[in-house]
Protein backbone atom coordinates (compact mmCIF):
# COMPACT_ATOMS: atom_id res chain seq x y z
CA UNK A 1 0.00 0.00 0.00
CA UNK A 2 0.99 3.55 -0.59
CA UNK A 3 1.38 5.27 2.79
CA UNK A 4 1.42 8.77 1.25
CA UNK A 5 -2.38 8.71 0.89
CA UNK A 6 -2.98 8.12 4.60
CA UNK A 7 -2.60 10.53 7.49
CA UNK A 8 -0.43 9.41 10.35
CA UNK A 9 -1.78 9.05 13.86
CA UNK A 10 -0.22 12.23 15.29
CA UNK A 11 -1.58 14.41 12.50
CA UNK A 12 -5.01 12.81 12.82
CA UNK A 13 -5.14 13.57 16.56
CA UNK A 14 -3.87 17.10 16.00
CA UNK A 15 -6.45 17.82 13.28
CA UNK A 16 -9.30 16.29 15.26
CA UNK A 17 -8.47 18.42 18.34
CA UNK A 18 -8.30 21.57 16.22
CA UNK A 19 -11.61 20.76 14.53
CA UNK A 20 -13.32 20.04 17.86
CA UNK A 21 -12.04 23.26 19.40
CA UNK A 22 -13.17 25.33 16.44
CA UNK A 23 -16.64 23.77 16.51
CA UNK A 24 -16.99 24.53 20.23
CA UNK A 25 -15.88 28.14 19.76
CA UNK A 26 -18.27 28.67 16.86
CA UNK A 27 -21.13 27.20 18.91
CA UNK A 28 -20.48 29.44 21.91
CA UNK A 29 -20.31 32.58 19.76
CA UNK A 30 -23.55 31.62 18.00
CA UNK A 31 -25.35 31.04 21.33
CA UNK A 32 -24.42 34.53 22.55
CA UNK A 33 -25.70 36.09 19.35
CA UNK A 34 -28.95 34.14 19.46
CA UNK A 35 -29.72 35.28 23.02
CA UNK A 36 -29.21 38.90 21.97
CA UNK A 37 -31.45 38.35 18.95
CA UNK A 38 -34.13 36.83 21.15
CA UNK A 39 -34.20 39.88 23.41
CA UNK A 40 -34.47 42.16 20.37
CA UNK A 41 -37.34 40.07 19.01
CA UNK A 42 -39.42 40.48 22.15
CA UNK A 43 -42.31 42.76 21.50
CA UNK A 44 -42.50 46.05 23.30
CA UNK A 45 -45.48 44.75 25.26
CA UNK A 46 -43.49 41.77 26.57
CA UNK A 47 -40.51 43.97 27.41
CA UNK A 48 -42.78 46.22 29.46
CA UNK A 49 -44.22 43.19 31.27
CA UNK A 50 -40.72 41.97 32.14
CA UNK A 51 -39.63 45.39 33.37
CA UNK A 52 -42.82 45.71 35.41
CA UNK A 53 -42.30 42.29 37.01
CA UNK A 54 -38.67 43.09 37.83
CA UNK A 55 -39.54 46.43 39.44
CA UNK A 56 -42.33 44.81 41.53
CA UNK A 57 -39.89 42.09 42.62
CA UNK A 58 -37.36 44.71 43.72
CA UNK A 59 -40.02 46.52 45.74
CA UNK A 60 -41.10 43.28 47.41
CA UNK A 61 -37.49 42.46 48.27
CA UNK A 62 -36.96 45.88 49.83
CA UNK A 63 -40.16 45.72 51.88
CA UNK A 64 -40.22 42.11 53.14
CA UNK A 65 -37.06 40.15 52.44
CA UNK A 66 -37.82 37.28 54.81
CA UNK A 67 -41.21 36.63 53.16
CA UNK A 68 -39.60 36.60 49.70
CA UNK A 69 -36.94 34.14 50.91
CA UNK A 70 -39.72 31.90 52.20
CA UNK A 71 -41.60 32.19 48.88
CA UNK A 72 -38.44 31.34 46.93
CA UNK A 73 -37.89 28.22 49.03
CA UNK A 74 -41.51 27.22 48.53
CA UNK A 75 -41.32 27.80 44.75
CA UNK A 76 -37.88 26.16 44.53
CA UNK A 77 -36.22 29.32 43.26
CA UNK A 78 -32.88 28.37 44.75
CA UNK A 79 -29.31 27.81 43.66
CA UNK A 80 -26.37 25.95 45.19
CA UNK A 81 -23.17 27.93 45.54
CA UNK A 82 -20.45 25.79 47.02
CA UNK A 83 -22.01 23.91 49.91
CA UNK A 84 -24.67 26.54 50.64
CA UNK A 85 -28.20 26.84 49.31
CA UNK A 86 -29.26 30.38 48.42
CA UNK A 87 -32.56 31.76 47.21
CA UNK A 88 -32.74 34.30 44.42
CA UNK A 89 -34.01 36.81 46.97
CA UNK A 90 -30.84 36.39 49.04
CA UNK A 91 -28.65 36.91 46.00
CA UNK A 92 -30.32 40.20 45.19
Polypeptide structure, described:
With 92 residues, this protein is mainly α. 73% of the residues lie in helices and 9% in strands. It has a two-stranded antiparallel ribbon with strand order 1-2. Strand 1 (78-81) and strand 2 (84-87) form a beta hairpin. The protein starts with 8 loop residues before the first helix and ends with a helix.
Task: Supply database-style keywords.
single chain; 9% strand; 92 residues
Task: Set out the fold topology.
Elements lengths: L8 H33 L2 H20 L1 H10 L3 E4 L2 E4 H4 L1
Antiparallel strand pairs: 1-2
Helix pairs in contact: 2-3
What is the distance, rounded to the nearest whole angstrom, between the alpha carbons of the first and last residues?
68 Å
Strand composition percent = 5-15%
Give average pLDDT, whole number.
80
Counting helices, strands and paired strands, the structural category is: mainly alpha
Helical content (DSSP H or I, runs of 4+): over 70%
Across the major sheet, the strand order is: 1-2
| Shape label | elongated
Could you name the ranges where pLDDT drops below 50 across 5 or more consecutive residues?
A: none
> What is the helix tally?
4
What's the gyration radius in Å?
A: 24 Å
User: What is the makeup of the main sheet?
Assistant: 2 strands, antiparallel
How many E-type strands? Answer: 2
SSE string, helix = H, strand = E? HHHEEH
